[in-house]
């Protein structure tokens, strides 16, 4: 995958994450700073999602662990457990 394609797909993923946040949990504050999307819950729980351009991945870090997502077959899947990025975000939003 070339850089332009990766960046377009990663940007679309960030947009989908923000839409998901706004539809599920309005108690989450979010901020994009460069390649990093930070989510902060009222409880103080935080999730950091960042674009890893060199690896062509999206990484998610929280107190529950770190996950690396690669784009395959139209979705971002975790190398750890094959979960889809938006499914993982949905789980985090509902459990915090």
UniProtKB/TrEMBL annotation:
Q: Which GO terms describe its molecular function?
A: ferric iron binding; ferrous iron binding
State the superkingdom. Bacteria
Checking Gene3D superfamilies in the record gives: Frataxin/CyaY (3.30.920.10)
One BP term from GO: iron-sulfur cluster assembly
Q: Which SMART domains match?
A: Frataxin_Cyay (SM01219)
Gene Ontology cellular-component terms for this entry are: cytosol
Give UniProt keywords alphabetically.
Answer: Iron, Metal-binding
Which Pfam families does UniProt cross-reference here? Frataxin_Cyay
Q: Which NCBIfam families match?
A: FeS_CyaY
User: What exactly does this protein do?
Assistant: Involved in iron-sulfur (Fe-S) cluster assembly. May act as a regulator of Fe-S biogenesis.
Family to which the UniProt record says this protein belongs? Belongs to the frataxin family.
Task: Please identify the protein, giving its name as recorded.
Answer: Iron-sulfur cluster assembly protein CyaY
Gene label? cyaY
């Amino acid at each position: 995958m070339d850089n332009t394609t990766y960046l377009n797909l990663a940007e679309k993923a960030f947009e989908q994450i923000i839409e998901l946040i706004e539809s599920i949990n309005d108690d989450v504050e979010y901020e994009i700073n460069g390649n990093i999307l930070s989510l902060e819950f009222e409880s103080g729980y935080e999730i950091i999602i960042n674009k890893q351009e060199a690896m062509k991945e999206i990484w998610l870090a929280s107190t529950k662990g770190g996950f690396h997502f690669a784009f395959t077959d139209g979705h971002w899947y975790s190398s750890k457990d094959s979960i889809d990025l938006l499914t993982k975000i949905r789980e985090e939003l509902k459990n915090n």
